[in-house]
Design goal:
Elements (H helix, E strand, L loop, with lengths): L22 H11 L6 H13 L1 E4 L7 H12 L13 E4 L4 H8 L5 E6 L9 H13 L4 E5 L2 H5 L3 H15 L3 E5 L2 H4 L2 H14 L3 E3 L11 H18 L4 E3 L7 H15 L11 E3 L2 H14 L12
Parallel strand pairs: 1-2, 1-8, 2-3, 3-4, 4-5, 5-6, 6-7
Helix pairs in contact: 1-10, 2-11, 2-12, 3-4, 5-7, 7-9, 9-10, 10-11
């Protein structure tokens, strides 16, 4: 399936009509996903699916071209001793490193994602955010991960946030737009639900939990609320929207819980890298360790796999 075209005329939704979240019910349902257990071949399939959904990420002030090139090599060669592995979905870097990542990945079918819009704070004039987005796209970014202006959202300036997302979407051109809500700063599940609805109506192709720089980052209850918002938006508009939990998902076991929640909330159509991603830097290695354990019965040391 391909992403549906975003209507050229977008309208600010009436957020006062967004249904309130049953916080107790959401937390109870999210906890039940952690009781699910999958075994043998189904577990191997799930682990490989998780690998294929990872946005392998480096977003540090100390990033260098060499570090980004090394990350791209890992994306291409996750573990050559296991030749049947899928590749990751994307490599995610700062805008200044997009051209480096694009060249390093060459003709491989791995996307280059770039954070933008004054990541992670979002505290910059809109014109600067738009220019940063355009530069990243011009340098070859296939996807843009933008942060919303949380201060404006928390003050109830919903039209400002809506217009900013819509403007960034236009600046993306053919690149897909992931809108980061930074749920750890929104405070309540009701705000998470409203921000999800706002972002989708403004033109987001994906909604994403977090920058990974604020705690708490992704959690099962927050992600469930966002998945439910995506489901309701699909029923309302017929448009599929992708989902990206990011930050704090470092083990294969936890990632499997997220996959179970995805399947039971949105169904099989969303269980592809086109519609679901994990934002992670260390998750890939734990998944590789689990796959090695399934193949040999022995856990390898974490040092057996490349760190970057």
């Amino acid at each position: 399936m391909t992403l549906a075209a975003v209507p050229s005329t977008r309208q600010l939704p009436d957020l006062g009509r967004v249904a309130l979240v049953d916080e107790v019910g959401v937390k109870e349902r999210a906890a039940r996903f952690q009781t699910r257990s999958i075994k043998k071949e189904s577990k191997i399939d799930a682990l490989k699916m998780i690998l294929s959904m990872i946005d392998l990420t480096t977003l540090e002030g100390q990033d260098t071209p060499g570090k980004v090139q090394q990350l791209c090599q890992k994306a291409i060669h996750l573990h050559d001793a296991m030749p049947d592995l899928p590749h990751v979905a994307a490599v995610c870097v700062y805008p200044t490193m997009v051209a480096v990542a694009k060249k390093a990945l060459g003709t491989h079918d791995i996307k280059v994602a770039s954070v933008a819009t004054a990541f992670p704070s979002g505290m910059a004039p809109r014109q600067i955010k738009l220019e940063e987005t355009r530069i990243a796209v011009e340098d070859g970014a296939d996807e843009i991960d933008m942060v919303i202006s949380r201060g404006a959202f928390l003050q109830g300036e919903y039209a400002f946030v809506f217009d900013e997302i819509a403007a960034i979407k236009e600046a993306c051109g053919a690149a897909h737009l992931k809108v980061i809500l930074e749920t750890g700063e929104l405070g309540t599940l009701d705000r998470v639900r409203r921000a999800s609805v706002l972002a989708m109506h403004a033109g987001a192709d994906f909604i994403k939990t977090s920058t990974g720089k604020i705690q708490p980052a992704a959690t099962l209850p927050v992600t469930l609320v966002m998945l439910q918002a995506i489901r309701d938006f699909y029923y309302e508009t017929g448009r599929m929207i992708g989902m990206k939990p990011a930050g704090g998902i470092s083990t294969a076991k936890l990632a499997v819980h997220y996959l179970v929640m995805l399947r039971e909330t949105l169904g099989n159509a969303w269980m592809t890298p086109e519609w679901y991603r994990f934002g992670a830097s260390s998750l890939a290695n734990d998944v590789l360790m689990q796959l090695q354990k399934q193949a040999t019965g022995i856990y390898q040391s974490p040092d057996y796999f490349s760190k970057d």
